[in-house]
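Hey team,

Filing this mostly as a record. A colleague (T.K.) asked me to run one chain through the structure pipeline before their review meeting, and I want the input and output archived in the tracker in case anyone asks later how it was produced. No errors, nothing strange. Just documentation.

Input sequence:
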Amino acid sequence: MNMKKPLALLLAAGLSLGLAACGNGSQGSTETPAAGGNTPSGDQTAITIWTYPIGKFGDKESVDALIAKFNEVHPEISVTLETLDYQNGDTQVTGAITAGTTPDIIMEGPERLVTNWGAAGKMVDLSDLWTDEVKADIAATSESVVSACQLDGKYYEYPLCMTTHCMAINYEMFEKAGALQYIDEETRTWTTEDFQAAMQALKDSGAAPVNGIVYCGGTGGDQGTRALVNNLYSGTYTNAEHTEYTANSPENVEALTLLQTMVNDGLLTSDASFVASDELQQFANGTAAMTFCWNASNKAQYASQVAFTPFAMAFPSDDGTPELCGGIWGFGIFDNGDQARIDAAKEFIKFVCDGDQAVESVQMTGFFPVRASLGNVYAGTEQEADAEEFLKLMPYLGDYYNVTGGWTEQRTLWFNMLQQVFSGTDPQTAADDFVSQANANIK
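Output structure:
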C-alpha cells in the first residue's frame, strides 16, 4: 500500500544549534539550586530530569540556565540534571527501571516514552496537561503528533518540537562529477533512476573517495536507512494501523536488492561497523559524497568541520515524491509513586513548553514547534535564512510509524537484516526473517 500522504504541517520554523538523534552527546549531572535571589520557604521538592542530546538539551550549561529561569518562578522545586547520549542512554534507563531509580522527567520521543516505557506501565498519564486548547494548537500543525503521544487514551508525552529527517549531498562533488543534472535543486527531490545515474557519474568521475555509506553497525541513525529503503520503490515500513511491520513487501525487497547490487558494483559502500555518527563524520571530512542521516541540527553541529556545501535532499523515490521520517520530542514523567514530585515535574514541563518560555525552548532543540500558535520561532534570528532548505522538505513528512509495538527490538533486527543483505543473503529471505521476528515482538 502506498502511504505517500504527507502530513499537513505549519511551515513556520527554523534552524538552531544542536546535535541530532543520530549523533553523539555528552554525559554528566548537575543540580541547580533556587536562583534569582529567591530563598525557598519550607521544604523543597527535589526532582530529577534526564535529557537525551536533543539540540542544546544535551548541553548541561544550557539546561542549567533553563533550570535557573524555572527556579525564579518556582524556588520551591530543586532540579537535578543528567544528560544522556544515544550510545548508552537506553541502557542507563533500562538499568534505572530495574533498580527503581528512574528520573522524574525524561526528554525523548514517542517511540521511547509511549511505545516502550508507557506501554510497560512505567509512565504517568499526562492527560491533564492536554487541554482542549493544547490539543487544537498541536493538531493545527499535525494530527499525527497528537496521536503519537498517546496510547489507549492515555498521554505519556507532552511534546515540544518536531522535524523531518533527510539526507544531504556534497554539492561541489556532485558538481565536479556532472551529477547535479540528476537532482531537482528547487524541490530537493530526485527519482530512483536519477539516484542510480548520479552514483554512476560519481564513480566514473572519481570526484568522491566514497559515494555513500549504507551504515548498519547499530541502531544509531536507523531512520536514514529505513527511509532510503522505503522510498526507493514507495514501500512502507508498517501497515497504516501500526499493528505489523511490512519491510518484506515486494517494494522493499526490490529496494534491498537494488542496494545490494549497487554495493556489489561499487556505486555504494556498506559498513557493518558504522553507525550514523561514523558515516556523518566521513561526510563532514569530505570522504563520502553523501550522508543518509541529515537534518537541521546536524547541519549546525558539523558546520565548523565541513569545507564544502552540504545540500539537504529528500531520499530518492521511484515517482519523485518522497515520504520522509519524522521526529517528535517532548517530555514524560516516570511514575515513582510520589505525587508531590509528579506535580513538581508537571510544573517544570509546563514552564518549558507553555507560555513565554516555549519559543526559546524550541530554539534550544534546533527543530520546529509542534504548536501552530508559536509561529516562526526563528524570525529575526541568525538562523532564519538558513531555515529555508529544511522548510522545503517539511511537506514531505510521512507517516509517524515509530509508535508500532516492539519498536526497540525491531531496531536491532533492522540493522542485523541489513548486514545479512550486504553479506550476500537473499533480500527476500532476510526481509521475511526480519518481519517474522519483529511482528513476534508486538504485544
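Quick notes for T.K.: The chain has a mean pLDDT of 90. Residues 238 and 246 are 5 Å apart (CA to CA).
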